[in-house]
Task: inverse folding
C-alpha cells in the first residue's frame, strides 16, 4: 500500500531536483530541505509509513485488539493461529461473509484441536466487548472486530494461558515502542546539555565529561544495564519497572548523542554569529541553548533516530531475561519467554510471532534513520 | 612495541579499578543480599544468618570497606569463593571463560570471513543489483534482534534435526567420546550460536568495508595500477584491499563491547555455558564475588581485544609505529 504511494510522491520531487537543485532549495528552511530530500528516498519512506502504522496501532490497541492482554482462556492453551482458518466459502462452496468454525479441544495435554463444523461464527465489525481506554482518555467497549461468544478468534493463536497473541502484541507494542520514543527524548536532552557544555567550554570540563562518555561507550551496555537494574529490586509494579527501564536506558544512551553534539558545538562556537552574540553580552547558557544547539538539530535528529533500536532491543532483552516488564502485562520481550522451552517452540512455533514485530520495528527505524542521515548530508544536494 | 604494550596495560589499571568500584557500589546500594532468602527460611536461625553475614563481610554498608574486603585478597590472586555455587570463583570462571572465548572468537571469524568479500563485491558492483542485495542483507543483520534470531535458529534445529538445539556438547554421548569426536561435537554445537552472534557484527563490517572500498577505488594509485595493465583481480587484492581494510580493524576494537553484550543473549537462548550466563545468574542471586570476578574478566577481555586491534593495525599499516 505504501510502496506505490512513496514512489508517486518521489516522482515529481525527483524531477525538480534534476531540473535545478538550486531553485528547489532556495527560500526553504533546513528542515524543509531535509523533508524534501527524505521524500525522495523510497526505503526511508517505507520505514516511515511502517512506523506510522505501528505507532497508530499501538495507540489504538484497545480498539483493534479483540481481547484484553490478560484475558486468559484456561481451556484453550496454544490454540493455533486462525488467520489461515478464516473461511470465506461455506460448505456449499458459496461466498459468504468471513467466518471461523468453533474449535473443540481434542487433547488438553497436547493442545490439539479440531474444527466443529456445526458451530459457525461470522466475523463481525464494531462488536461490543471488554471496555478499554485509549491514551487514558477515551473509554469505550466497541472493538474493531470479533466473534460472538462462545466462539473465539485468535488470529495469531493463543499462548500457554490461552491469551490471544494478536491482542497481546498490540498491547505489548505500547510498551516496547513507546520505550524507544520516551527513552530517546530523555537521552537526547541529556546528550545535548552535556555535549553543548563540553564543546562550548572546553578545557577541564570537556576532558572530564568526555572521559565519562568514553567509559560508557566502552562498557558492554547490557551488563551495565543489568547491574543498574539490581539497584531497584524486583517487587515493584509494572509502571514503576517501565520507568526504571526508561531511566536506566536513557542514563546509558546519552553518550553517543553527547559525543556527536560536542564535535559540532566545538566548530560552531568559533562562528561569527556566536562571537557576535558573546560581544552583545549574552549569557553562556543563552548562547548555548538559543544560538548553538538549534544549529545541531538535524544531526541530533539523525543520531536520535538511529539510536531508537538500541532502546527497543534493550527492553526486549531485559524483559526476555525476566527482569523487565512482568506478567500479566505484555511486552514483545516477555512474550518471547515462552519460546525458551524447546518443546513449546517446536510444537507451537507461533509464540515467536512477537519477534517478527520487533524485527519489523527495528528495521523500519533503521530505514528511516539511514534515509535521514543521507538527507542531512550537505554533500547530497546544493 | 614492548613499551607500548606495557603503557597500555598500565593505563587499563584505573579502568579496572573504576569499573569494579562502581559495580561494588551498585551492589552495596541495591536492596537485599544473597542472604535475603535464607532470612525468610524459618528453619535457619537468625544467629546463623548474622554469623554468615559477618563471614561474607555483608554486614557493613560502607562501600569503601566492602570494596577493600574484595580488592585486597583479589590483588593477591584470591577472587573469593562463590556464595551460591560452592566452588572457588576462579575455577568457575576458568571453566566458563574458554567457552565464551570460543563463541565470540568464532563469531568474529565468521563475520570477517563474510564481511570482507561481501563489502568488496558491493563496492565493485556499486548500485547494481548485487550491491542492493548485499545492502538488504546487511540491513537484515543490523535489525534482527539476537533473541529472535537465536530462537529462530533453535526452531530450525529442532525442526530439521541438522544441528543440536542447544548446549555445548552432547549430554549422553560425551562421556564415551574420543578426543577427536569431542572436538567435532563441540564444533557442531557451535555452528548456530556462532552464526547468530556473527551476524550482528557482519552488517556493520559490510557497510564499513563497502564505503572504504569505494573510497579506495577512486584513488589515483588504483588508476595507475589499472593503467599499467594489471588484472582487476590483482588491483583489488594487492592494491586496494590492504588499504581499505585498516578502518575495519579500528572498528573491531569498538565492536567488542557489542559482541560481549550480544554473547550474553545468545548464550542464554542456546544454553551455552559461557561467562554471560554465569554473570547473569550471579547477578540474579547476588553472588557478589562471582559478579566482581566476571566484571573484571569482561573489562580485561575488552582491554586485550582493543590492544590486539592496535597491534594488528600497526602490523598491516606501516605508517603506524607503536613507540
Result:
Amino acid at each position: 500500500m505504501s510502496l506505490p504511494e512513496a514512489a508517486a510522491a518521489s516522482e515529481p520531487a525527483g524531477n525538480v531536483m534534476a531540473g535545478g537543485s538550486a531553485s528547489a532549495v532556495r527560500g526553504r528552511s533546513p528542515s524543509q530541505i531535509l523533508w524534501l530530500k527524505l521524500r525522495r528516498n523510497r526505503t526511508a519512506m517505507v520505514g516511515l509509513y511502517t512506523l506510522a502504522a505501528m505507532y497508530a496501532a499501538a495507540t489504538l490497541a484497545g480498539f483493534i485488539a479483540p481481547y484484553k492482554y490478560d484475558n486468559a482462556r484456561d481451556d484453550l492453551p496454544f490454540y493455533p493461529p486462525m488467520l489461515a482458518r478464516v473461511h470465506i466459502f461455506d460448505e456449499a462452496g458459496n461466498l459468504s461473509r468471513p467466518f471461523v468454525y468453533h474449535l473443540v479441544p481434542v487433547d488438553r495435554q497436547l493442545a490439539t484441536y479440531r474444527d466443529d463444523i456445526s458451530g459457525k461464527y461470522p466475523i463481525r465489525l464494531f462488536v461490543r466487548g471488554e471496555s478499554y481506554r485509549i491514551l487514558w482518555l477515551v473509554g469505550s467497549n466497541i472493538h474493531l472486530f470479533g466473534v460472538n461468544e462462545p466462539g473465539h478468534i485468535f488470529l495469531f493463536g493463543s499462548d500457554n494461558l490461552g491469551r490471544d497473541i494478536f491482542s497481546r502484541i498490540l498491547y505489548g507494542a505500547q510498551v516496547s515502542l513507546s520505550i524507544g520514543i520516551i527513552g530517546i527524548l530523555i537521552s537526547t536532552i541529556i546528550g545535548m546539555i552535556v555535549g553543548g557544555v563540553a564543546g562550548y567550554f572546553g578545557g577541564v570540563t570537556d576532558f572530564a565529561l568526555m572521559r565519562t562518555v568514553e567509559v560508557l561507550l566502552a562498557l558492554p551496555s547490557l551488563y551495565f544495564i543489568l547491574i543498574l537494574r539490581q539497584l531497584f529490586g524486583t517487587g515493584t509494579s509494572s509502571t514503576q519497572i517501565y520507568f526504571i527501564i526508561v531511566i536506566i536506558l536513557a542514563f546509558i544512551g546519552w553518550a553517543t548523542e553527547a559525543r556527536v553534539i560536542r564535535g559540532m558545538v566545538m566548530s560552531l562556537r568559533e562562528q561569527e554569529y556566536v562571537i557576535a552574540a558573546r560581544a552583545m553580552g549574552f549569557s553562556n547558557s543563552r548562547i548555548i541553548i538559543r544560538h548553538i544547539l538549534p544549529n545541531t538539530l538535524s544531526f541530533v535528529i539523525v543520531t536520535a533516530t538511529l539510536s531508537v533500536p538500541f532502546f527497543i532491543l534493550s527492553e526486549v532483552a531485559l524483559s526476555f531475561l525476566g527482569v523487565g516488564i512482568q506478567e500479566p502485562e505484555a511486552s514483545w520481550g516477555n512474550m518471547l519467554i515462552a519460546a525458551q522451552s524447546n518443546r513449546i517452540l517446536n510444537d507451537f512455533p507461533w509464540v515467536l510471532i512477537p519477534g517478527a514485530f520487533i524485527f519489523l520495528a527495528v528495521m523500519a527505524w533503521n530505514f528511516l534513520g539511514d534515509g535521514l542521515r543521507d538527507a542531512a548530508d550537505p554533500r547530497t544536494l546544493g | 612495541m614492548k613499551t607500548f604494550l606495557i603503557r597500555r596495560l598500565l593505563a587499563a589499571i584505573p579502568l579496572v579499578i573504576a569499573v569494579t568500584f562502581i559495580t561494588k557500589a551498585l551492589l552495596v546500594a541495591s536492596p537485599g543480599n544473597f542472604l535475603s532468602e535464607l532470612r525468610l527460611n524459618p528453619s535457619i536461625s537468625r544467629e546463623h544468618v548474622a554469623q554468615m553475614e559477618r563471614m561474607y563481610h555483608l554486614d557493613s554498608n560502607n562501600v569503601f570497606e566492602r570494596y577493600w574486603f574484595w580488592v585486597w585478597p583479589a590483588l593477591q590472586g584470591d577472587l573469593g569463593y562463590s556464595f551460591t555455587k560452592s566452588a572457588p570463583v576462579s575455577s568457575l570462571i576458568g571453566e566458563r571463560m574458554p567457552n565464551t572465548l570460543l563463541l565470540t572468537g568464532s563469531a568474529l571469524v565468521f563475520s570477517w570471513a563474510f564481511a570482507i568479500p561481501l563489502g568488496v563485491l558491493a563496492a565493485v558492483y556499486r548500485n547494481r543489483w548485487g550491491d542492493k542485495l548485499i545492502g538488504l542483507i546487511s540491513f537484515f543483520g543490523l535489525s534482527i534482534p539476537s533473541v529472535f534470531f537465536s530462537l529462530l535458529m533453535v526452531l530450525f534445529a529442532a525442526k530439521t534435526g541438522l544441528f543440536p538445539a542447544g548446549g555445548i556438547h552432547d549430554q549422553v554421548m560425551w562421556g564415551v567420546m574420543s578426543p577427536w569426536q569431542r572436538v567435532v561435537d563441540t564444533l557442531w554445537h557451535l555452528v548456530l550460536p556462532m552464526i547468530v552472534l556473527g551476524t550482528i557484527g557482519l552488517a556493520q563490517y559490510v557497510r564499513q568495508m563497502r564505503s572504504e572500498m569505494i573510497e579506495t577505488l577512486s584513488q589515483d594509485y588504483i588508476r595507475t595500477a589499472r593503467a599499467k595493465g594489471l588484472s582487476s583481480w590483482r588491483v583489488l587484492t594487492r592494491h586496494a584491499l590492504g588499504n581499505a581494510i585498516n578502518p575495519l580493524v579500528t572498528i573491531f576494537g569498538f565492536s567488542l563491547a557489542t559482541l560481549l553484550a550480544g554473547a550474553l543473549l545468545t548464550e542464554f537462548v542456546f544454553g551455552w555455558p559461557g561467562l554471560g550466563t554465569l554473570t547473569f545468574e550471579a547477578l540474579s542471586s547476588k553472588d557478589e564475588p562471582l559478579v566482581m570476578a566476571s566484571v573484571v574478566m569482561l573489562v580485561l577481555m575488552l582491554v586485550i581485544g582493543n590492544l590486539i586491534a592496535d597491534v594488528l593495525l600497526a602490523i598491516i599499516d606501516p605508517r603506524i609505529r607503536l613507540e
